[in-house]
Write a structure and sequence with these properties.
Blueprint: H1 3-15, H2 18-37, E1 46-47, H3 48-52, H4 55-74, H5 79-84, H6 86-92, H7 97-129, E2 133-134, H8 137-164, H9 168-182, H10 186-198, H11 210-220, H12 222-234, H13 244-270
Parallel strand pairs: 1-2
Helix pairs in contact: 1-7, 2-4, 2-7, 4-7, 4-8, 4-9, 7-8, 7-13, 8-9, 8-12, 8-13, 10-11, 12-13
């Protein structure tokens, strides 16, 4: 399958980007600093799972910085080659447009997974040498993989924009808009609606309760779905305890975000004039 060749070349091109190197270094430093700062009180111990699930690591770093890095890595994946003219050369080889799109998703996913893996490696060393921290290797590796999946979600969104956009300006506008909607602005949008629905408001024609609407809003945001899955995983309750339906729904929503944006971009791309 020729999409593997596209993915390999795209990964090599993306990993050499100064943006990727700079943001990866920033991610390593910030996660390492967070791992050092989130320490137990004197005479107490904490687990590495508590560190990973802390507001500093999960909210201030993972769900804020990883989407930004992923969008920057991937927003120019297709439209950049389209503007430079190299896309015509690429399609003159035995590659279909679907090969290009999904090869780009895979290549850029590797490019975001690499800095995430490196970003969690140094903090792991710090947590291992801190005597008051009980380090859980399997949970730490699993959380790293879940973080990589979150990165892949935003890579897929960015590649979808890049595939459908006619210019880099439009692609980056879509990526920036997505980031601001799902990361800094989502709480501002959700909070007044939560108050309204919590007080019994809501349109009578909607066949859902206010709480069901709020759960849907939490799931629609990929960072919200990530938090549901990662929280349950670090607590050892994924798909076994707590709100299992929400955990399954969150997992499926992450899968939807990985598959749907590139497919929608491909539908547009199939008819696009290069």
């Amino acid at each position: 399958m020729t999409w593997t060749a596209v993915a390999r070349k795209d990964f090599e091109d993306a990993i050499r980007s100064r943006w990727v190197a700079g943001l990866s270094a920033l991610f390593v430093l910030l996660v390492s600093a967070a791992a050092y700062l989130v320490r137990p009180a004197p005479g107490q111990t904490i687990s590495s799972n508590q560190v990973l699930n802390s507001l500093v690591v999960r909210d201030a770093l993972v769900t804020t910085l990883v989407p930004l890095i992923a969008l920057i890595v991937a927003y120019n994946a297709v439209v950049g080659e389209r503007e430079s003219g190299s896309l015509k050369l690429l399609l003159s080889l035995p590659h279909s447009r679907a090969d290009v799109v999904f090869g780009k998703v895979l290549g850029r996913s590797g490019a975001i997974a690499a800095p995430i893996g490196v970003g969690f490696l140094l903090p792991a060393v710090i947590l291992l040498v801190v005597p008051a921290v009980n380090f859980d290797v399997l949970s730490y590796v699993g959380y790293t993989l879940l973080t990589a999946i979150l990165g892949v979600v935003f890579v897929s969104i960015a590649v979808g924009f890049s595939t459908a956009a006619s210019s880099s300006r439009r692609a980056i506008a879509g990526a920036v808009g997505t980031y601001f909607l799902f990361v800094p602005l989502w709480g501002a949008v959700r909070f007044p609606l939560q108050l309204y629905l919590g007080m019994g408001g809501g349109p009578s024609w909607l066949p859902l309760t206010g709480q069901q609407v709020l759960r849907m809003l939490r799931l629609i945001n990929p960072t919200g779905s990530f938090k549901i899955v990662s929280n349950a995983f670090l607590q050892g309750a994924l798909y076994t305890e707590g709100s299992v339906n929400m955990q399954v729904s969150a997992t499926l929503m992450l899968l939807v975000w990985i598959l749907v944006p590139p497919l929608l971009g491909l539908l547009w791309f199939q008819e696009a004039d290069l």
